[in-house]
């Protein structure tokens, strides 16, 4: 019973805490203006151009913290606040997304591996619980095993995402400093934004691993009976 309660806390509380941390940090540093008075779009364009990525476009996208890099269309998409904003948060997030564009241009191994996992990870995310629940209801542990295998691919995707995101943040920090976009007294603020964003990926990976361990344990325990 205690183990199940701990599992529920991990499943619910950790992601909520990570999301809250990101939102609060973003809210705080979205009010802190960067010294160079560059918008997120301008920061992204400068870093892209400095790295010879003139073919990568920058677009404004709807939503809050909806920023992302689209490797298929070679587009860095920034949410409106970050696209037009002059804040420390806007600079950090724009540079992070450009970090993914640089990874793409350099054929960063973990990014390539993650791309190959997308189809099967998406299928695993959708199908795993269907097989697991069906197996439990029907008492068919072979179906549970199929569900666990599907889930393992989704978990692998979450784990591979971690080095991809950490590397993009490191690249962002290095680019912001080397190009002179941020100054010494702004480095701490930028790191806080990047570190907070990374927490969401860590939380997602922890939850995914916990779920996989739980259902895998269920299968092995049932198999031993």
Automatic annotation (TrEMBL):
Keywords per UniProt: Membrane, Transmembrane, Transmembrane helix
Transmembrane regions: 129-157, 198-222
Protein name as catalogued: Zinc metallopeptidase
Keyword Membrane: yes
Any Pfam family: Zn_peptidase_2
Coiled coil ranges: none
PANTHER family, sorted: MEMBRANE PROTEASE YUGP-RELATED
């Amino acid at each position: 019973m205690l183990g199940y309660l701990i599992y529920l806390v991990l499943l619910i509380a950790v992601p909520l805490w990570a999301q809250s941390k990101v939102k609060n940090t973003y809210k705080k540093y979205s009010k802190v203006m960067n010294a160079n008075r560059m918008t997120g779009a301008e920061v992204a364009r400068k870093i892209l151009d400095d790295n010879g990525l003139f073919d990568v476009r920058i677009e404004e996208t709807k939503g809050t913290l909806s920023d992302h890099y689209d490797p298929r269309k070679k587009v860095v998409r920034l949410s409106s606040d970050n696209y037009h904003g002059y804040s420390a948060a806007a600079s950090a997030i724009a540079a992070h997304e450009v970090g993914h564009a640089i990874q793409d241009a350099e054929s960063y191994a973990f990014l390539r591996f993650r791309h190959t996992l997308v189809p099967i990870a998406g299928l695993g995310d959708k199908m795993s619980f269907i097989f697991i629940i069906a197996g439990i209801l029907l008492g068919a542990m072979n179906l549970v095993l199929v569900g666990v295998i599907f889930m393992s691919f989704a978990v692998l995707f979450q784990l591979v995402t971690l080095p991809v995101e950490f590397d993009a943040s490191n690249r962002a920090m290095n680019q912001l400093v080397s190009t002179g976009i941020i100054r010494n007294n702004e480095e701490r603020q930028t790191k806080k934004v990047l570190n907070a964003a990374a927490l969401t990926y860590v939380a997602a990976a922890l939850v995914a691993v916990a779920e996989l361990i739980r259902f895998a344990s269920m299968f092995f325990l049932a198999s031993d009976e």
